Amino acid sequence: MAMAALTSSSSSAITLLNKPFLPNRSSFFSSNSHSTLLRFSASASVRPRFPSAAISTVAPESDINKNETPKIKIEETQVFACPVCYEPLLRKGPSGINLQAIYRSGFKCGQCNKTYSSKDEYLDLTVTADLDDYNEVKPITTELFRSPLVSFLYERGWRQAFKRSGFPGPDEEFRMAEEYFKESEGGILVDVSCGSGLFSRKFAKSGKYSGVIALDYSENMLRQCKEFIKNDDTFDNSTNIAVVRADVSRLPFPSGSVDAVHAGAALHCWPSPTNAIAEICRVLRSGGVFVGTTFLRYSPSTPWIIRPFQSRILQSYNYLMQDEIKDVCTSCGLTDYEDYIQDSFIMFTARKP
């Protein structure tokens, strides 16, 4: 806050990935009997107890009557929605939550007619996607991590320095988060403000989720994430991980479609923690779990006499205290709040009732 070396038999797949896939806007969803058109709905899930959104497509009855081989019915967990109106997106292309399938797919909102596509490294699902003239500038706490330099350094020294404030380290933080996510295994996990994908990759490697979505607003962080995946021999084109650009205060998922949300060392960077947590609550299914970590404004051992000065120095960031985090979570509709504190580090969790 990048994939294994392929054999010669995979060379055709690489060639396909490097070719532009999407047609122009006007012809994006033109009538074509040979195209597979997928529409997201909320009718099925990867496991019955997870009501995540699903997609399906079957051969038209006319095809079957012509004794042609019917198209295989596709039904698997998908959660993408338009960030403008939250209408589930239409998808044209191969199914699946993996880098190759996402790159070769085009997405369109049937209500506001806006299209979305991958930009080589990530799928852009921001409201400002593909705008020609307007470039939205966020507060400095967000813009800092859009920097190419900070994005490059994040896993090369920046994140390691968090230990000075009590962070246990990525491996232990991942283990702790996994304990809270046990009931969400088999479902969709969204790693919001994922940065360079440090935890997204760990969740995907665990094999415990039907899909992991690495989501961040920073283009350069997502490029780093893709690069780490590409250079990791344990990943291949079928690994269920997608790299998505989106705003945490405007998450591109239908309501009640996500099983778990993780936000590692993120809350203090959000322009509005209340808006972000309200969005997280919206997209979580009933029983879905939210786990986050952040820096406290000051640790329990910070002398009271310097606390006001420390608060002023850090006022550019939204460093909250334990009771404030609990208050925000509960006011946004989450329940069963728990937390763990070590120095200035806090890991907190809550679930949607």
Automatic annotation (TrEMBL):
**What keywords does the record list, in alphabetical order?**
Chloroplast, Methyltransferase, Plastid, Transferase, Transit peptide
> Which BP terms does GO give this entry?
methylation
Q: Does the keyword Zinc apply?
A: no
**Residue ranges of domain Methyltransferase type in the record:** 190-291
Principal location listed in the UniProt entry? plastid
Location within or outside the cell? Plastid, Chloroplast, Plastoglobule
Question: Plastid as a keyword?
Answer: yes
Q: Name one GO molecular function term.
A: S-adenosylmethionine-dependent methyltransferase activity
Write down any Gene Ontology CC term: plastoglobule
Q: Look up the domain of life of the source.
A: Eukaryota
- Family (UniProt): Belongs to the methyltransferase superfamily.
The protein's name in its UniProt record = S-adenosyl-L-methionine-dependent methyltransferase
